[in-house]
Fold these 3 entries.
Entry 1:
Amino acid sequence: MTELAWQKSSYCGEGESCLHAAAAPDGTVELTESSDPARTVLTTTRATWASWLQALKAGDTSAAGIEVEAAPHDGIRIRSAETPSHVVTTTSKKWHAFVLGAQDGEFDHLAGT
């Protein structure tokens, strides 16, 4: 099994758990919450990932293929059309850190661009 090079936003504090993203060898992009004991992984195509990053840069939280919704207790749920049964749950603080990193282009390379 290939070890993925997981990356978190530079806006996450040192040593803090956060949303982590990685490019997989099969050409997909994976997203997980590092503090999730179940290690749920959302998988999406690079094209969907690129579209989502563009939406985040424009201030929109969702794009075709990825849905973001509020959850109880200051939570955020993220799901992909490619793996709708895999729901990544995080906090609004960690989500905000991820979005800031996405807006700064920190995850653009995962889209293969």
Entry 2:
Amino acid sequence: MEEEKETLKSRKVITIGIVSELTGLSVRRIRYYEERKLIFPERTKQGSRKFSFSDVEALMDIANKIEDGVQTHEIRREMARRERGLTDREVRDQMLKGQLRAHFGETRS
């Protein structure tokens, strides 16, 4: 049952116009997020974009982060970290180590 829910949630069946209505984002803004490689809609043979409910959730999350001042490249970096399976704590630890190395002029060993 859970697997079926995830399949329905991830099916790319929603047009960009409907996504715009659901999210309150303009079609232009949605296309911009796609250009910035933050979302990855499928394309039909005719070239129309198709989104999933997971994509809609991701767009809302992206829009909230942008509103909070987060840059698109930072969002993309966070997405890559999540894909690699790093926890927030691990990411924070890596950032602190990098800052310490930069401050004290240490090189990686």
Entry 3:
Amino acid sequence: MSKRIVILGAGESGIGAAILAKQKGYAVFVSDGGSIKDVYKKELEQHRIEFEEGKHSEEKILNADEVMKSPGIPEKNEMMKKIRAKGIQVISEIELAYRYKGNSKIIGITGSNGKTTTTSLIYHICKTAGLDCALVGNIGYSFAKQVAEDPKPWYIAEISSFQLDDIITFRPDVAVLTNITEDHLDRYDYKFQNYIDSKFRIIMNQQQGDTFIYCADDEVTMQNINNFSIKSNLLPFTMRNELKKGAYIKDGEVVIATEEEKMQMSVYDFALKGKHNQYNTMAAGLAGSSIGLRKEKIRDAIQSFEALEHRMEFVATVRGVDFINDSKATNINSTWYALESMEKPTILILGGVDKGNDYDSIRDLIKEKVKAIVCMGLDNLKIQNAFKNDVAVIASTSSAEEAVHTAFHLANKGDVVLLSPACASFDLFKNYEDRGKQFKDAVKNL
């Protein structure tokens, strides 16, 4: 009799997992408490996969041999509590994909900030070097679906802490941890240590011969790294000192040194600007070098990479005022990096769903660089209270259009309007992409 797998959540990862599980002979049932998008329903019907929406039927879920949980579903969910109480094994989509990847290799990237940029840059390096690879995971395309429909020798996977929470055997050949800052604490019982432990799960199954790339300048990473038994080859990156093995920046030159060889290039040649992107570029360069890619190809890729949409994306200059879309800044640390790179007086658009933010860490930058804050969210009180003594003007708005108009009104020629919300977007928007798009549309309509 075939093994019964229940897929909870019918988003990108859920559908991909369902297709792969069906292909591998599982009896598959998909259950989504909300509504399922038409495009996903069509896929389920095409593959003759049984599904339900708008509910979770206990009798059909609690008889599973295994449950694949979508990353968006918290452990506090009532159905999850019942599944755990019954002792049913719970896995994530990347665990299922890993089981069936064959001889393919994985570069897995996690971290609180910079992981999407780093993942995209590693993919660009691998493609430039001629590797047959796919970009999967948290960044858009389901890892499981890629394995089912178009398997590749290499997978470049962006991985969230939620996906790592439910791995058992998943093991990346190269693991990259960009940094760890307080994020998603609402999902980790407001205990930072739980979130830290979750991020370090990326190396839990690594063996000798695998590689672990991490930031030696990240305090949280360095305070915790010795609490884990790490068997893989360590490659740190830093701006503080020279390393024999790893990557560092000295006098405007980056040096990337792995077992194989050493490469150098000027940071002024990096396509990505800003200090945080120098870290991301070092991590990506190390990943490419550690799998033996030629340094000329790595150099070409680092110089030709184009920045991502919604991540410090220049939108337009309107009557001397620059508009920058950093909608992907869904936590305080991302906003800190954005502010740090500002060189002109800034009107900052902040706000959304607060995940337990401590605004103290950006206070100094706000005092130094921000002349006005425009709140954009349904509940702006916490932001107003946090900065009422630091900024002369704090305005409240409840749409992207209103926020853009207000910011433009407050700006003078030579100023920057920066959308870098430090919060999730679910109060007014579908997701951070929707928020960024509405911001860009509003700017274009000025």
